[in-house]
Amino acid sequence: MALMLAGCVRRQGGEESAESANVKVPVTVAIISSGTASVTIRSVGKTDALRKQKVYSPIAGIVTTLHIQEGTSVHSGDVIAIIRSKEAQATIAGAEGLLQSATTDQQKQEAKQMLDLANRSDNVAVLKAPFDGYVSQRLVSESEVVAENAELATLIDLSTVVVVAQVPIQDIGSVKIGQKAFIDFPSIAGRKFDATVDAVSPQAVVESQTVPVRLRFDDEKSQINNPIRTEMIASVSIVTGKRNAALFVPKRSLIRDDETGSYSVFTITPDSIARKIDVEVGVQADSLIEIHSSQLKSGMPVIVEGSYGLADSTHVEVR
Question: With contact defined as beta carbons under 8 Å apart, do 33 and 288 qualify?
Fold first, then answer.
């Protein structure tokens, strides 16, 4: 009886092994594609205006008229403010005081003449907008007393808005004037703006070890018709070169090792065996990502679904 039982056990184990060998893990695949990869440098930056001017008071006095507020649109030549000098204001105030204190007709007549004379000889400074733009900052109010050279407001021309990107100093050697760039704003979802490298600063920023790079929008009309303002944070990609015959796979085919930070993909052999291949990643293009591996080539399949927890050399079945 013992021998018969042992034989039965061995036979059942063999059947289970055979069944396990025939089990195939269902997977979904995509084909490795080939194309041109844009070599890019990524950085962050913010918008600024090339034409930005502060308005100062040329004289000490009182702001008698103020036509602007934050956000006010101005045209070149528009009157922004009128400032009366301290001396003129004192003369007018004195004449008004005499007029109020006059008790006789003669006193009133003399006070009126003095007030008319003070108004006719009024020493005022009329400040006008130097260009078309917007008021980004107003620092004074009407009837406020200001000193000579006091800052009154800041004007900006939105048609001159650019992006200044802070490029890491180790990458600056690849950046050249005229290169294409792409700009994304976290605050403007779903839009990517085309730009061109307009200038590279000759001086680095000590604290961040970056170099300011100015980017000009290719379509200024598109820029103006969108909510682009100064001091907006931007993500910048500068195209510094291209790689032909680059290999691309869907991003979801990548497997990341969190301990080492390395990447791999699973391909499938002709006899339906999954093979794990280590890869290096390159640039991203929408839902695809560039990979580098001497073991892979265009047209080979990679697993995009079913690779989680999959062991190398596992039998798979393409769904």
Answer: yes
